[in-house]
Amino acid sequence: MRADLSGQVVFITGAAGGIGRATAHRLAANGASIVVADIDADGAGRVAAELPSALAVSMDVRRAEDAKRAVDATLEKFGRIDVLINNAGVNSMKERVNIDKFSEDEWRRIVGIDLDGLYVVSHAALQPMVAHGHGRIVNIASVIGVAGFRLQSAFSAAKAGMIHLTRSMALELGPKGILVNSLAPGSVLTEGTKQLFYGDDGTFRAQMAGFMSHIPLGRPAHVEEIAEGILFLCAPENSYMTGHLMMVDGGWTAGFMF
Ligand SMILES: NC(=O)c1ccc[n+]([C@@H]2O[C@H](COP(=O)([O-])OP(=O)(O)OC[C@H]3O[C@@H](n4cnc5c(N)ncnc54)[C@H](O)[C@@H]3O)[C@@H](O)[C@H]2O)c1
Prior knowledge:
Blueprint: E1 9-13, H1 18-29, E2 33-38, H2 41-50, E3 54-58, H3 64-78, E4 83-86, H4 104-132, E5 135-140, H5 153-173, E6 178-185, H6 191-198, H7 206-212, H8 223-234, E7 245-248
Parallel strand pairs: 1-2, 1-4, 2-3, 4-5, 5-6, 6-7
The protein binds nicotinamide-adenine-dinucleotide (NAD).
């Protein structure tokens, strides 16, 4: 789809790779200036250099001082923030274990980035957005925040919290002209998840074929398909949807494929 985002400033966390980078490109192609915010400073710089109008900021979404510095740098360069996309997120990729074996450090790392990070960055970005009296926030959740998932307790708790925080934020910020929605990707093929599908030797893993059989569309999403949903939530045409959870999951959560 096309949307007129010209003149709009979009702040995207975790924009150095995967879904964040694809979203930066998609929104930039529709006229937006992009703040590429990521803990990976080199990656953020590389993505910003690919875009016509962008600023790279290095930040850890868990740190309030980083978020304030990033927001100040954005205001200095662009003078405003119209859209915040809370996309930075992590999960345990290799060592997936039951809750009784789940380490406290890993719990705090995941919940700290995926849930606390949403609060920390929103808190900083909302100062200018509320003063401006209009804006959009899009929080990138997961199907695993809707249905539980074995061996991913911290991620599922953090993403469920994110979805519910979205609703509370929508209630508080609607009267201030700010629409807040979340989007739940299903399975998405990125550099990070490629290993789950193809293993270390690059061969498609039989176990993943079983997993894909639960998805009516039978395949993981491309990052561009997630970015398209995000573009819709940011578009001026989307003017009456807030507190909503948009599923972009190939039908995974529609029901049972048996
Ligand atoms: N890929 C999937 O299958 C999938 C499925 C559902 C939900 N999601 C969600 O989508 C979002 C993006 O995922 P992705 O697959 O593109 O991930 P990714 O790993 O490709 O990219 C995540 C980005 O976040 C950055 N990041 C990590 N910790 C950070 C921190 N503390 N502060 C700032 N930046 C940090 C990383 O450097 C990276 O650039 C995440 O919230 C993820 O949970 C992804």
